Design the sequence.
């Protein structure tokens, strides 16, 4: 509380009944349990518990001028509710509201908490799921009191098909989406978005992904671990509005935090949308990567050598130190890189400062013009 509202927040003025009301309203989540006879091991339940507690206390929610955890946001929402709805007497309410941040409406803070609480479950499921191994579902189920919950965990084996792609047999995996119910959901794409790439009668196609694409997502969206590929798939398909035709493929943009960092390259095969691979936005086969190659002369091996083909590199670029590099990216359509939120990432991988300087120096030697002509 004091972290959010400052050291002078008058919590001590709450009486015993009001403090007990606060304690009762703070969301309490019990240790997870297996749902029915689902294939969830004790070790996996333990992992769910540890990950949930970790995510609950990660300070990644902006509130005023601070970053707070979901747990802290919950306590703050309850405090505001108690002040505005439980405390009796206008004089006491006024006294309890004499702190910066008291202008927040308790309903607004509660809605913010609920939104981030749902996002936490998506992250939790994404961190556990591997569409090639096991797909998890987690339900936050009311248990006992109004604010007493338990995590119910279920899991399902993947659906695997073997199909012919360019004359070779390949395994593909049905893309499962995070579900907060004990029934798994599958990713689908509206057939009307496929244009000339599909002429069949189905209104929706199931989405499958090759192992190669899963591997490339984890490599290129580094710093996020397994969470990267599952979370990006989870937030992409439910809100998919368009696909971009390019060089015989259908491209699905991947945009963590609203910043485009790459594409899923897809084909329609046997009445399915199959994700063939993931390419980072600087790769020479993407629209932006092709423009970067044309503008600078850099080829695929150059991009890999300078490690600008992975997310951990891009989110370390800032305007103060590398304005020329950002300007170059803007010119070829790689936009808002500096807006990437480093709080998303769990690991500290990628280029050292000196490598960026060397890369920019290389471009200068090649006489690359950073100004729009």
Sequence:
């Amino acid at each position: 509380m004091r972290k959010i509202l400052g050291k002078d927040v008058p919590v001590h003025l709450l009486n015993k009944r009001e403090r007990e009301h606060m304690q009762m309203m703070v969301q309490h989540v019990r240790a997870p349990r297996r749902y029915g006879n689902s294939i969830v091991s004790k070790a996996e339940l333990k992992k769910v518990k540890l990950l949930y507690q970790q995510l609950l206390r990660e300070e990644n929610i902006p509130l005023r001028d601070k970053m707070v955890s979901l747990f802290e946001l919950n306590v703050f929402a309850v405090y505001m509710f108690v002040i505005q709805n439980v405390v009796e007497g206008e004089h006491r309410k006024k006294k309890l509201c004499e702190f910066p941040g008291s202008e927040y409406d308790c309903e607004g803070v509660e809605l913010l908490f609920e939104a981030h609480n749902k996002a936490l479950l998506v992250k939790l499921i994404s961190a556990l799921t591997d569409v090639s191994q096991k797909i998890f579902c987690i339900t936050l189920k009311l248990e006992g009191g109004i604010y007493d919950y338990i995590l119910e965990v279920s899991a399902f084996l993947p659906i695997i098909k073997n199909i012919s792609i360019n004359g070779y047999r390949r395994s593909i995996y049905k893309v499962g989406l995070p579900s907060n119910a004990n029934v798994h959901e599958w990713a689908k794409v509206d057939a009307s978005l496929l244009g000339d790439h599909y002429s069949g009668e189905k209104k929706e196609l199931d989405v499958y992904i090759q192992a190669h694409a899963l591997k490339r997502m984890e490599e290129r969206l580094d710093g996020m671990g397994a969470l990267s590929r599952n979370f990006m798939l989870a937030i992409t398909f439910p809100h998919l509005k368009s696909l971009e035709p390019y060089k015989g493929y259908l491209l699905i943009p991947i945009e963590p935090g609203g910043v485009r960092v790459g594409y899923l390259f897809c084909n329609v095969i046997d009445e399915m949308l199959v994700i063939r691979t993931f390419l980072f936005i600087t790769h020479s086969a993407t629209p932006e990567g092709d423009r970067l190659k044309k503008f600078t002369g850099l080829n695929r091996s150059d991009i890999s050598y300078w490690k600008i083909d992975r997310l951990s590199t891009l989110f370390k670029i800032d305007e103060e130190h590398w304005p020329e590099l950002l300007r170059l990216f803007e010119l070829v359509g790689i936009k808002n890189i500096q807006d990437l939120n480093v709080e998303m990432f769990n690991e500290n991988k990628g280029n050292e400062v000196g490598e960026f300087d060397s890369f920019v120096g290389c471009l200068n030697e090649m006489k690359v013009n950073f100004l729009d002509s």
